[in-house]
Design brief:
With about 425 residues, this protein is an alpha/beta fold. It is about 40% helix and about 15% strand.
């Protein structure tokens, strides 16, 4: 009933949202005899904030500019869906320029998190990689829009999707797992290595991933282990209501995830919206735009299928099955020791409060048969979780390390 109550509350707020939109127009329009007065600016700002707080944030657009592949030379960019599954689309950021015909840019598959936010959260990751890489990304779909007739989706299906995407893209691809998908990607590569699959990836890079959550546990890790899995099933799993396409599907709703995200830094978000109000009053356009860009992405969340969410909590966070050598995939044990030809890189931020230092680096311990010369550990001293894959330090310091690693390990040999 909670999902239905949330939908009713959202619809009940529609008149207030409409009034706020009209207020924005009227207080700033030419019909107002004093549009630049303090009271007009104050009331317009108030209406702006009301509209922001009552809006539903849909999946953001990519809004990517054409990549500059050489100084002064930009490629034409086209985002194309090259592979479709019920719960995920594989996107290709296809660049077109005559220069690229003579270059052998490494092919990179970015595995985006399926942890609440959309793949567009990695906009900065993709922008930096596109300069000198041929980039693909997993674009996970909102479970409330996937019909129940498309069947269930759990962690084992997630791993199967990754193996299918790797096989489709062919051999010698470089995989970058950002945060949550780390254990699933490692499991997929392990299974392919054990089968000696011809499309084994050239390298795998894990960035802020919960490979072994027993190392430096953080607040999210503690929240996942403080209660038994039955508690999560009884308290956070709900049924998608009509009229959504995924009605009757059991999910972990996006609005509950967002509540969790916000509660971790509630004071910071309160201050940010108070600052937004002040910036609107004084018409500080640049600051307002930065706020909107961040929160348009941050407040856009997706539902996760109940099976995927519960299995992830149990397998990755509560049982720590992968580092213990106990992880199973469709009745088959996952064996990271089978990997010997795929290179391994881990990236961590010393200030990461989501995946603590050491959780990602644990991949090197369990992938014991990868030669030392094909392993690389990178710890940035001045970034938190999001700084690992977004922002200036990612672009200027971390991404060049990845690029050099890819060039050093062009094939799975």
């Amino acid at each position: 009933m909670l999902y239905q109550a949330y939908e009713m509350l959202y619809k009940a707020s529609a008149p207030y949202r409409a009034a706020a939109l009209w207020g924005q127009f009227l207080w700033r329009s030419r019909l107002n005899p004093m549009p630049d007065s303090f009271i007009s600016s104050y009331m317009a700002a108030y209406c702006d904030v009301v509209e922001v707080l009552t809006r539903r944030y849909d999946k953001p657009q990519w809004r990517l500019s054409s990549p500059e592949i050489e100084e002064g030379k930009k490629a034409t960019l086209r985002i194309k869906t090259v592979y479709e599954k019920a719960f995920c689309h594989l996107l290709h950021f296809k660049r077109s320029h005559s220069i690229l015909k003579t270059r052998n840019d490494p092919k990179v598959l970015v595995v985006a998190p399926m942890a609440g936010h959309f793949a567009t959260l990695l906009r900065g990751t993709v922008e930096a990689l596109m300069v000198d890489h041929d980039v693909y990304i997993t674009d996970w779909l909102d479970a409330r829009h996937v019909s129940i007739f498309d069947g269930p989706f759990d962690l084992e299906d997630y791993i199967a999707y990754i193996m299918e995407f790797i096989a489709f893209l062919g051999p010698d691809i470089h995989i970058v797992a950002v945060c949550q998908p780390g254990p699933a990607v490692l499991a997929a590569v392990s299974l392919m290595a054990e089968d000696d699959h011809p499309a084994k990836p050239a390298s795998m890079t894990f960035m802020g991933s919960p490979i072994d959550t027993r190392k430096s546990p953080t607040v999210p890790n503690d929240l996942a282990t403080q209660r038994p899995i039955e508690w999560f099933e009884q308290n956070v799993i709900h049924t998608v209501p009509a009229p959504y396409h995924g009605m009757m599907r059991r999910v972990y709703p996006g609005f509950l995830q967002l509540t969790g995200f916000m509660s971790m830094n509630l004071e910071r978000h309160y201050k940010a919206h108070m600052q937004l109000f002040e910036n609107l009053v004084v018409n500080d356009g640049d600051s307002v735009e930065k706020h909107r860009e961040f929160y348009d992405e941050y407040l856009a969340v997706m539902d996760l299928t109940a099976d995927f969410y519960l299995q992830t909590i149990k397998t990755v966070f509560q049982d720590c099955a992968l580092p213990k050598g106990e992880m199973m995939w469709r009745g088959r044990k996952v064996n990271p020791a089978a990997i010997s030809k795929t290179a391994l890189m881990t990236v961590e931020g010393k200030k990461d409060d989501i995946s603590g230092v050491g959780q990602t680096r644990a991949a090197h311990t369990i992938c014991k048969n990868i030669p030392k010369e094909k392993k690389e550990i990178y710890l940035h001293p001045n970034v938190g979780h999001y700084g690992i894959f977004n922002g200036s330090k990612w672009r200027n310091e971390i991404k060049p390390e990845l690029a050099a690693f890819f060039r050093k390990n062009p094939k799975a040999v």
